[in-house]
Amino acid sequence: MVTAGLIHYVLNLLHITVHIRDVCVFLAPVFSGLTAISTFLLTRELWNQGAGLLAACFIAIVPGYISRSVAGSFDNEGIAIFALQFTYYLWVKSVKTGSVFWTIGCCLSYFYMVSAWGGYVFIINLIPLHVFALLLMQRYSRRVYIAYSTFYVVGLVLSMQIPFVGFQPIRTSEHMAAAEPPIHPSIHPSTYPPTHPSTHPSIHPSIIHPPTHPSIHPSLPPSIPPSIHHPSIHPSIHPSTYPPSIHPSTHPSIHPSIHPPIHPSIHPPIPHPSIHPSIHPSIHQ
Asked: pTM of this prediction?
């Protein structure tokens, strides 16, 4: 009735004289044509233009809808089927684009559906089931997250403005399918790239899979000997970095165990006058 009254008011503003009874008689046939258009748009968005034309032809001749869209049939289903199809079209459009603009349009169409017919529970249950199917198919993305989050919040608030609905969306079991909060794509496993998380550039491979030997680590420069890069030996104290004069094999203070013992009988000390003056008395004469 609100739709018929609004159409009558707009026609009078345009100086088109029409009786309110004529508006009520032709309301259902006009909306049946809009239903065919919305069905075409929905099917074209899902498949292609040819399938959309075929679906529009089917919805125009289906017997169950003809009985509710003939002239003089002033019932809720005359405009509710159009609102149903148009809401689904805007939902698919918002999921594909991830645009808040299309999602707000979907919410407004859902609000019109709630105000026209009590079968709005089909929408509020089928859309969450669609999102759940996308989760199972690992097709959940940021676009779906934006579309469903906006639709759930705005659509829920708008539907609660209808007097006969009130707080039913959060109290009754008919709306339980939409009660689960959306999952952010950044924490859902289905949004991980095909590779393992250990290959993520922010995670160093050595943290998750430490190499067995640093010589095969890809980050090491090839010009440096692999033996220097052992994690337990600092390059400054590694034997390969010592100069030849103090190499551990020739310096007994560093590695005395590998230096051969010195026997006085084999290696006698070299005499020096300042140290052993009694050995060469002729020098001091």
From this structure: 0.61
CB of 95 closer than 8 Å to CB of 137: no
For residue 87, give both structure tokens. Answer: 């809401």
Q: How far apart are CA 282 and CA 285, in angstroms?
A: 5
Please count the structural domains in the chain.
2
With respect to residue 201, please indicate whether it lies within any of the assigned structural domains.
no
Contact, 68 vs 116, CB < 8 A?
no
| CA-derived radius of gyration, the chain | 43
CA distance 101 to 113: 19
Cβ(182)–Cβ(134) under 8 Å? no
Q: List the domain range (segments joined by +) for residue 7.
A: 1-74
Alpha helices in 185-252 (DSSP H): 205-208
Q: What are phi and psi of 77, to 5 degrees?
A: -65, -20
Distance of CA 207 to the CA centre of its chain: 25
Is 145 in the same domain as 120?
A: yes
Please give the structure tokens belonging to residue 155. Answer: 């659509």
The pLDDT tens digits for 60-119 are: 999 888 888 888 888 888 888 999 999 999 999 999 999 999 999 999 999 999 988 888
Q: Which of 159, 182, 205 is the last residue of a domain?
A: 182
Between the alpha carbon of residue 166 and those of residues 48, 54, 80, 180, the distances in Å are 39, 39, 19, 20
The overall average pLDDT reported for the chain is: 74
Report how far residue 128's alpha carbon sits from residue 102's, in angstroms, rounded to the nearest whole number. Answer: 17
CA distance 231 to 238: 11
Helix residue ranges per DSSP H, the chain: 2-13, 20-46, 49-61, 63-66, 77-97, 100-116, 121-136, 142-159, 168-171, 205-208
**Looking at the structure, do residues 43 and 83 belong to the same domain, yes or no?**
no
